[in-house]
C-alpha cells in the first residue's frame, strides 16, 4: 500500500513569525492527524526557522523550487546543497505557477528533477492542464507531454523517489475542485504512463498527489480514490487546523 502524503505549499505567504507559528501548529497536531507523511514547504528564506520549529516532529521540510545547477554565477537561485544543508527532504518542481508565470519548460523541470534526485531530495513534480486545454479535450495529451518531458531521463531506480502531483491549473486557488471522476481519470492515466515507461510494480509504488482547492470538506472523497495518494495543498495549508483536517480526512 502506498502511504499517503499531504504536502503544504505555502507559496509566497507568511513572514518569519507566522511561518514559525504555522510550523509549530502543524507539528503540534501531527500525531493526531493519522499516519500520512506530512510535509510543509515554506518560502525559501524561512526554511531555516521552520526547520527549527519542526525539530523533533514527524513533519518533513520541503522547498518550493530549486536551481538545476550545483553552484556558481546564478544570481537569485538556490542550490540543492543549500536545501539539504537545512534538512530539506522534498522539493516541489514544475509547479504551474513556475511554468505559467516564470516560463519554466518541461526541460527545465527535468533538469531540476535529475539534479534533485542526484542530491537525495524527493522531487514533487507537478503536471496539470489549463482550462482551455481541458475544454478542448486535450487533458490526456497535455498530461502525457508534461509527464514525458518533466521526467525525461529519470531511471527506474530514481523514479521510486519521485512524487507526482496532478494540479489542474483551473482548480488552483479558484475554489473549483476537480470532481472525483476528473481527478481519478488523470491519476489513472499517470499510473498507466508510469507502467508503460517503467514496470507495473514500480508504478504501483509511486505516490500521485492531487492539488487544487483541496480543503477538509472535499478531501475525504478525493483521498479515497484508488489512484490519489495524497494532496498538495495551497490555501488550506496556511492554517494548521485545515491542513491537519485534510490529513485526517484521508484516514
Ligand atoms: O497550487 C496548489 C498547491 O501547490 C493548490 O493551491 P490551492 O490549494 O490554493 O488551490
Automatic annotation (TrEMBL):
User: In the UniProt entry, which residues are flagged as the active site?
Assistant: 95 (electrophile), 167 (proton acceptor)
The alphabetized list of GO BP terms reads: gluconeogenesis; glyceraldehyde-3-phosphate biosynthetic process; glycerol catabolic process; glycolytic process
Mind telling me which CDD domains this protein's record contains? Answer: TIM
- Reaction catalysed by this chain? D-glyceraldehyde 3-phosphate = dihydroxyacetone phosphate
Read off the InterPro entries from this record.
Answer: Aldolase_TIM, TIM_sf, TrioseP_Isoase_bac/euk, Triosephosphate_isomerase, Triosephosphate_isomerase_AS
Q: Which UniProt keywords apply?
A: Cytoplasm, Gluconeogenesis, Glycolysis, Isomerase
What top-level class of enzyme does the UniProt entry assign? isomerase
Report the superkingdom from the record. Bacteria
The molecular function terms of the Gene Ontology recorded here are: triose-phosphate isomerase activity
**Per the record, what is one GO cellular component?**
cytosol
Per UniProt, subunit arrangement is:
Homodimer.
**Family of the protein in this entry:** Belongs to the triosephosphate isomerase family.
HAMAP family the UniProt entry points to: TIM_B (MF_00147_B)
Q: What's the name of the protein?
A: Triosephosphate isomerase
* UniProt source species: Botrimarina hoheduenensis
Amino acid at each position: 500500500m502506498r502511504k499517503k502524503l499531504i504536502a503544504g505549499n505555502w507559496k509566497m505567504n507568511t513572514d518569519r513569525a507566522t511561518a514559525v507559528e504555522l510550523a509549530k501548529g502543524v507539528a503540534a497536531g501531527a500525531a493526531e492527524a493519522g499516519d500520512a507523511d506530512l510535509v510543509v514547504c515554506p518560502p525559501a528564506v524561512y526554511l531555516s526557522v521552520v526547520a527549527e520549529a519542526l525539530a523533533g516532529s514527524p513533519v518533513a521540510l520541503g522547498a518550493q523550487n530549486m536551481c538545476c545547477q550545483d553552484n556558481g554565477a546564478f544570481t537569485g537561485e538556490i542550490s540543492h546543497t543549500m536545501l539539504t544543508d537545512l534538512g530539506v527532504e522534498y522539493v516541489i518542481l514544475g509547479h504551474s505557477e513556475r511554468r505559467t508565470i516564470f516560463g519554466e519548460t518541461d526541460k527545465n523541470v527535468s533538469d531540476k528533477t535529475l539534479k534533485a534526485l542526484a542530491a537525495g531530495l524527493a522531487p514533487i513534480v507537478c503536471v496539470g492542464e489549463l482550462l482551455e486545454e481541458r475544454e478542448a479535450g486535450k487533458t490526456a495529451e497535455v498530461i502525457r507531454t508534461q509527464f514525458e518531458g518533466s521526467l525525461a531521463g529519470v531511471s527506474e531506480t530514481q523514479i521510486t523517489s519521485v512524487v507526482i502531483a496532478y494540479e489542474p491549473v483551473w482548480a488552483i486557488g479558484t475554489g473549483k475542485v476537480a470532481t472525483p471522476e476528473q481527478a481519478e481519470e488523470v491519476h489513472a492515466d499517470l499510473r498507466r504512463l508510469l507502467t508503460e515507461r517503467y514496470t507495473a510494480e514500480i508504478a504501483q509504488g509511486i505516490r500521485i498527489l492531487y492539488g487544487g482547492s483541496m480543503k477538509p470538506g472535499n478531501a475525504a472523497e478525493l483521498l479515497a480514490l484508488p489512484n490519489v495518494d495524497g494532496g498538495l495543498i495551497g490555501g488550506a495549508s496556511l492554517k494548521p487546523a485545515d491542513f491537519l483536517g485534510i490529513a485526517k480526512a484521508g484516514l
